[in-house]
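C-alpha cells please, single chain.
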Amino acid sequence: MAKINRRKWIKQNTYAALALTIPGSFTSSLYKSKEMNTEHPICATCGIQYESATQEHCLVCEDSRQYVNADGQQWTTLPALNKTHKNIIEKVAPNMYAIYTSPRFGIGQHAHLMVTPNGNILWDCIANLDATTIDIIKKLGGIRAIAISHPHYYSTMIEWSKAFDAPIYIHQSDKKWVQRKSEAVHFWEGREKTLWDGLKLVLCAGHFDGATVLYNPDHGGQLLTGDMPLVCSDRKSVTFMYSYPNYIPLSSEAIRYAKESLDPLKYDSVFGAFGTYIRGDGKKAVDFSISRYLGQIK
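Here you go.
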C-alpha cells in the first residue's frame, strides 16, 4: 500500500471534511429515503420537487434518461437549499437574464427570464428560489408565465408559480412526469402554442415526447432550448440525445421530426440550458448540426 504523509492527506481531504462537519453545510443536510419526514422533498440529483413526504424514489432519476446517485437516493428541502446555495442573475442579452445556482445543484441547468413589452416569461426552472431572487425578478417586471422545456427542469416550478402568480405551460405528452399537481399547470397540445408578442412554444419531441423550445421573433430571432437541441461546447453547433448522461442517441426519425418543427423558424441566436449560447447564424448552426447528426447515424 502506498504511503501518504499527513500533509498530503489533509490537502486531499480538506473540502470533504469541511462539508461533513460544518453546521448547515449542504452535504450534512442531505438525507436518505428512510429518513424522510418533510413536506415537498427535493431530489438532490435532479432537483425535482415531490408532493409527498413519503416519496421513496425519484421517478425521473430512475428513468433511463437520468440516473440515481451512486450513493443512493438522497433528498433535501427548499429551506435547506436556501441556506447553502445562492442564485446568480446575469444579463445575457438586451432582453434576457440567465438565472442559475452557486454552488451548482442538481443537473445544473440555467433558467432564463425573457423580458417582453407585454410581460416576462420564465423559460425552464431551477430548484433554488429565495427571497432575494423573488425581489430582483419582481423589480424586473415579474413573471407573466412559466414554460418548461421538458421534465428534467420541472424542479420547484410550483413554488415559482406561487411566488409570481404565474401559469405554467407544459406539453400534454409529458403530463405523467409532473410530480406536484396544481391548477397553475396548463397542458397544451399540438405542434405549437402561441403566447404573446410573437412568442410561441414549439414541440420538438425526441428527448422527451413533449420536449419543447421557446421562440421569440424579435431581437433577430431567438431560440431558447432545453436539451432538444442542446448547444455544444464549441458554441457553433447543437446536438440531440435521448439520454445525455447515459449516452443514448436518438433515431433519425426523431431528428427529422425536430427538423420539421424548427425549419419554419427564423432566428440568429440560440440560448442553451447551461450558459452556452450561439450568438450569430444560429439557424445555420442548427441546420448544419442536424445534417451532421443524420450523416453519422445512417
